[in-house]
Design brief:
Blueprint: H1 9-17, H2 23-36, E1 43-45, H3 48-63, E2 74-78, H4 105-112, E3 116-121, H5 155-162, E4 168-173, H6 179-185, E5 188-191, E6 211-216, H7 219-229, E7 259-263, H8 273-288, E8 292-296, H9 304-319, H10 338-349, H11 352-364, H12 370-391, E9 397-401, H13 417-421, H14 428-433, E10 437-444, E11 450-457, H15 462-475
Parallel strand pairs: 2-3, 7-8, 7-9
Antiparallel strand pairs: 1-3, 4-6, 5-6, 5-10, 9-11, 10-11
């Protein structure tokens, strides 16, 4: 039998269905691995008794003859999804110890599919960051190199899957928070079309961008779990009402004849040579498999960063205004009047990065600057989205780098927020357009740190994107590489 912690999700589901392993045994195995590798700081809240109760329920369903591909398979949830049974803090002191009375829709759907929650995963505070250095509960370490950041904001999710202490993890992506950490830790990170997964129960950062997604070892695993995760939710006003879809249906479709668009703007100044080399090699592999590379242009993609850092902070300043110590969040112990209480509560509860973004957002929304910054940014956002539509008239998927470099070291960019923001150069355009996109491992660069290849597809074309990724993973083994010290049972 394959070592269980290395087995793909589909294989775990088959073993559970054949009763060759129980969900309780599998859950204990991953809980033990979480405990042994707690120095990674990937998990913030682990409650074995709650996880094992869920596993017992899954085992009873299996014993009753119920069959479902995810029934009894464990997973971790990013601490942005509210959950009953585990604290939901968004990695912030503002929500320290908060116990939600309900589950987020994504959590609810995966529990209905029979998945067992292992606990809550660390992330940048309120999902704001590219390095996981902005968690109020300490940074997550990268399993490939503990001196390197795991990426952000979904760093706990990516590190957990890379270290094989969870077979799959939920994550969220606002400007690259799934793809960048997936690239930095050598795993597969998938962001679906905006509006396909429900945002209900996700602690909001930037509502027009926040998208739930997954961290998995492979595209095949992502397709399997995504099929259970997507769906219309009347409680989310931005939820798209579409029929249920089998996201795995095109996994076996060959890539021969597929047109892969390569944006020339993604290979210019700023891209590290080691990353470019790995990306070019991945594109060459696709050519050998019969795909056709198409030169395309996204001329306004470079404006994505300034547009994003107007739109996202504006929405963040609005969303986080609810945490005032009156209605929600931490309340200061010592204060004078009501205004002083709100000031002290926010000053004590929020970390430096949310404060920075709230200030920027409040500025761009203020009288006299709204038209000059916010409305202008929304107009450029439309131009970027339209460029993707013109590109998809020439190609089936788009491929390029996820990040400008491999994972950087702790503290290297902490003092320079703009330098940190530029790490999202290639991920932000797709986020602004709302299209599905993903990162798959395609090699190693400087200091032996992983490199990710970004794939993007048109709206609602996740199945094709996952199929193109799967065919690459059938021809290579980058996604099966495990960091030293984490492969052993």
């Amino acid at each position: 039998m394959t070592q269980l912690h290395l087995a793909p999700v589909a294989e775990l589901g088959r073993l559970l269905a054949r009763r060759e392993v129980s969900s309780v045994e599998l859950t204990r195995l991953f809980l033990d691995r979480i405990d042994r590798h707690r120095d990674l700081n990937a998990f913030l809240d682990v409650r074995p008794e709650v996880s094992l109760r869920q596993a017992e329920v899954a085992d009873r369903r299996l014993a009753a003859g119920e069959s479902a591909p995810l029934l009894g398979v464990p997973l971790g949830h990013k601490d942005i999804f509210v959950t009953r049974g585990w604290a939901s803090t968004a990695s912030s002191r503002m929500l320290e110890g908060y116990m939600s009375p309900f589950d987020a829709t994504v959590v609810e759907q995966l529990e209905r599919a029979g998945m067992v929650c292992l606990g809550k995963l660390n992330c940048d505070e309120f999902a704001m960051g590219s390095s996981n250095e902005h968690s109020a509960y300490g940074p997550v370490l990268n399993p490939w190199d503990k001196g390197a950041v795991p990426g952000g904001s979904s760093g706990g999710s990516s590190a957990a899957v890379a270290a094989r202490i969870a077979p799959v993890a939920t994550a969220t992506d606002t400007g690259g928070s799934i793809r960048e950490p997936a690239a930095f830790t050598g795993i597969t990170g998938t962001k679906p079309t905006y509006g396909r997964p429900s945002r209900w129960g996700m602690i909001a950062f930037a509502s027009s961008l926040d998208t739930a997604g997954l961290m998995t070892v492979s595209a095949e695993d992502a397709a399997l779990v995504l099929s259970a995760m997507l769906g219309y939710d009347p409680r989310d006003s931005t939820s798209v009402d579409r029929p249920a879809e089998d996201c795995a249906r095109l996994l076996d479709a060959p890539v021969r004849g597929v047109r892969i668009g390569v944006p020339r703007e993604f290979f210019g100044k700023g891209l590290a040579p080691d990353v470019e080399s790995a990306i070019r090699a991945a594109l060459a592999t696709y050519e050998k498999l019969g795909a056709t590379l198409v030169d395309i242009s996204l001329p306004n993609a470079h404006l994505g960063i300034p547009v994003y850092y107007v739109v996202a902070p504006a929405e963040c300043s609005s969303n986080l205004s609810r945490f005032d110590g009156v209605r929600y969040g931490h309340r200061a112990k010592d204060y004078g009047d009501l205004t002083d209480m709100i000031k002290r509560s926010r000053a004590e509860g929020l970390g430096p990065e949310p404060k920075r973004r709230i200030l920027v957002g409040a500025y761009v929304l203020s009288h006299g600057y709204y038209d000059a910054y916010y409305l202008k940014a929304q107009k450029v956002r439309r131009l970027i989205a339209d460029e993707f539509q013109r590109a998809f008239a020439q190609c089936d998927v788009i491929a390029g780098p996820v990040t400008t470099s491999v994972a950087f070291g702790f503290g290297e960019k902490a003092a320079d927020p703009v330098s940190m923001y530029l790490a999202d150069l290639y991920t932000v355009p797709g986020s602004l357009a709302g299209i599905p996109s993903m990162s798959i491992p395609c090699g190693f660069g400087d200091k032996g740190r992983p490199v990710g290849l970004q794939l993007m597809a048109n709206y609602f074309d996740e199945a094709r994107m996952l199929g193109v990724a799967h065919q690459y993973q059938c021809a290579t083994d980058w996604h099966r590489r495990v960091p030293a010290g984490f492969g052993e049972a």
